[in-house]
């Protein structure tokens, strides 16, 4: 079983980096409300990954987009995400917008924040979705496609564990520890992004790989 898709998704989703946001958005929630938020967020993460794995290629066909072009674009998104992470920002965060503040306002108003902004865009955004579609195209057998769904379950479980242990994790790692781990994941993701882009460019322009 190829674990590269799982490693890539773990690096992008990186639920540890979202723990501080989870704590902030659920401040004042009762234990039952927190548990419900964790359940919905985890299920939403799996649903996004599963939808991209099962329907992503069909959507590309509908819009007549070649996978090679999608690989290059997706690789660029991954690289941008890696740059965010190297700056100790969540991969899918948009630090120069009011997206996070709007999420806080929704939480204060009593709206569910499990799907927005926790799942989308903080956990699974464009970079995560494009990664799943790229690896879905590489899957040749039923079991390889099924493995993507299994990886979705693993990512969802990792998200649930991190959120359930949010307070102990924040105390043990602290902001510095989370930042170090985020930067390490960003470095791994940058290397994977270059590989994805190189593969797409090689297919679009065969002369680049000609000997």
Automatic annotation (TrEMBL):
The chain crosses the membrane at residues 6-26, 38-59, 107-136, 148-166, 178-198. Keywords: Cell membrane, Membrane, Transmembrane, Transmembrane helix. It is found in: Cell membrane. The keyword Membrane applies. NCBIfam families: NAAT family transporter. PANTHER family: UPF0056 MEMBRANE PROTEIN YHCE. This is UPF0056 membrane protein. It comes from Acidovorax lacteus. The lineage of its organism: Bacteria, Pseudomonadati, Pseudomonadota, Betaproteobacteria, Burkholderiales.
